[in-house]
Write a structure and sequence with these properties.
Elements lengths: L2 H6 L10 E3 L5 E3 L4 H21 L1
């Protein structure tokens, strides 16, 4: 893939994260931060506990 293809692709517009192309033209996404991972984990456990309360 070339940068011109990335820019023109409607699927890659307005992504909430950064992407890069490696030397082979493959898209690589920037990994999430530690803060993001902790928040994701907290939301997962909160969601799981709410499902238990409903049943």
């Amino acid at each position: 893939m070339q940068w011109s293809e990335v820019i023109e692709s409607p699927y890659l517009n307005d992504l909430p994260f950064k992407i890069e192309l490696n030397r082979y033209g493959k898209i690589e996404m920037t990994p999430a931060s530690n803060k993001h991972a902790r928040l994701q984990s907290s939301l997962h456990y909160l969601s799981a506990s709410l499902k238990k309360v409903k049943h």
